[in-house]
Amino acid sequence: MRRQWLHDMAKFGAGLIAADFITMWWLSMQHTLPKVFLGLSITSDMLVPAMVVDIFILLILVHYGWNIGRIPQIKERMYLTAAGAIFTVILLGHLAHVLYSGDISILGWDVPVFLSWLGVLVAGYLAYASFHFAMRMKGR
Question: The organism sits in which domain of life (predicted)?
Fold first, then answer.
């Protein structure tokens, strides 16, 4: 069953992402950075990675919104393996914060180490469960 409203939302989201990309490109051409917007300091070092992320999101939304090609069905085992790999990367990031005691600051708030311990536990369990269920599925 087709869900036309999802395609329409993807088209709307593609327009928002395109506007965000154009705004960041315009900011990079003004040479007036850093700026503060909603408490977040925007520097020139942030623009290029954000613009790359915008391009990838825009491609995904355009692909889905305008039905370019067919979206392949992913097998459940592959999905669980990919999720396990992502949770493992998150686990390693939290472990690095715990072991090396690096300072992490998000919008001026210093992230305490106990949150990374919680992240280690949750991400570790989710990675284990994802790989465990993926290995139990033979040939699916």
Answer: Bacteria
Burial of 33 (0-12, 13-18, 19+ CB in 10 A): middle
pTM: 0.50
Q: In the chain, count H helices and then E strands.
A: 4, 4
- pLDDT, tens digit, for every residue of 32-53? 888 887 777 878 888 888 888 8
Residues 6 or more apart whose Cβ sits within 8 Å of residue 120: 91, 94, 95, 98
Most confident of 42-46, 52-56, 112-116: 52-56
DSSP 8-state assignment for residue 112: P
